[in-house]
Amino acid sequence: xxxxxxxxxxxxxxxxxxxxxxxxxxxxxxxxxxxxxxxxxxxxxxxxxxxxxxxxxxxxxxxxxxxxxxxxxxxxxxxxxxxxxxxxxxxxxxxxxxxxxxxxxxxxxxxxxxxxxxxxxxxxxxxxxxxxxxxxxxxxxxxxxxxxxxxxxxxxxxxxxxxxxxxxxxxxxxxxxxxxxxxxxxxxxxxxxxxxxxxxxxxxxxxxxxxxxxxxxxxxxxxxxxxxxxxxxxxxxxxxxxxxxxxxxxxxxxxxxxxxxxxxxxxxxxxxxxxxxxxxxxxxxxxxxxxxxxxxxxxxxxxxxxxxxxxxxxxxxxxxxxxxxxxxxxxxxxxxxxxxxxxxxxxxxxxxxxxxxxxxxxxxxxxxxxxxxxxxxxxxxxxxxxxxxxxxxxxxxxxxxxxxxxxxxxxxxxxxxxxxxxxxxxxxxxxxxxxxxxxxxxxxxxxxxxxxxxxxxxxxxxxxxxxxxxxxxxxxxxxxxxxxxxxxxxxxxxxxxxxxxxxxxxxxxxxxxxxxxxxxxxxxxxxxxxxxxxxxxxxxxxxxxxxxxxx
Length: 551
What we know:
single chain, mainly alpha, 5-stranded parallel β-sheet, two-stranded antiparallel sheet
């Protein structure tokens, strides 16, 4: 365990650290814990989160075993002590807390205005320093300024050595601040830890990708080998199909996030070959549905590259499979969900080709299936999200030619409400955040089409708030960056219509800067290059119009 309290960072020279699993004794007190986390009970959520991150963090291999001023660097920072119960209304610290403080190699203080007001946090800092003059006290600032958030005894420590881990988004940020705490605990330089950690993360991504591709090749070999035992054959087929689905879902999401969907080409071909080589009539329903998802995913990638005929062939193949499975099990929500995906895919392909009547038929079928799912399980976040997508598709269609502004507004408002319900039903408030931002964007367009620029601007600002929050958490996420570029373009249009050409130009310049960064990140991405070119053209036109107006 790790003890949890206020967030301040390393202050004195530290007692020797311990190799993992070997708790040495100091001259005065045996060391039982890597750290004690001190915090106000009002910051219990932050304390628990920090405790979990510290104990789960694995130090880079190239640092493990190195001897620093704090001793050999361990593989993991365990155990760490955190008091899991609020302190009773008593005049002194409990025996358990005293013993933990006595047996901790360092003290981590979670600093906030609540921590500064807490007499217990101050007492823990004072007791730790009196017990261990030579062991480090580390500060982790989560809210407020140091003057507002550091307990009084900690301010005295900070006056001697003011280094602190500022976990706020306006400070070091969650990741760098966390690494500061780790560096202070093990006695290694922050720059070196950051560099080693980044190298380790890059190697991990490369290893996972290489292993996944290798596993795919092994899967193809295994599935081509005759297996005598039926049970063994089914087990190996399930493993192979699971690997295929992983590569076309989780791995695809990861590569999309960094703008490298092109790296999936070989995986897509192997997965499709595997499914097309199977005798679908002999496969169990779950396996048939899984292969339908594989076919659908490959078709979606082909569509993004403008290969509509090939995409249509795969979509129709997947649609026949899911329709047959749904007919056999009409009340099975998994079958309803799978068939809804193929209806949506066919609708989006028709819309992309301006076949609006066909798109309307498919989108309405998708909406009916999504509504069936919500009726079966009203609190299911995944199903609510699908209902939001379905209504959003109908909104998009109503904004296309021939335009139906009132219908678009109705569908977009329902889509936003469905997505908000989905977000509320998840444990992670940001799980569907990008989908929520997209719904605000389309509702802004619907309001604008209905003549209400104020409402349109209101929803664009809501979209902007979500995007900023997501980029603070993950600045390298290219999906969010793409959404940000689209947002700035939309704001530029609003400002131009409102008679603010300077603001419109500024928004277009922001959009162009974002598109430039994306193209620099992945020069081979044709979609991003086209967006960058279009934005640059828009800016040139706007500037020319301004010059003509001023002449």
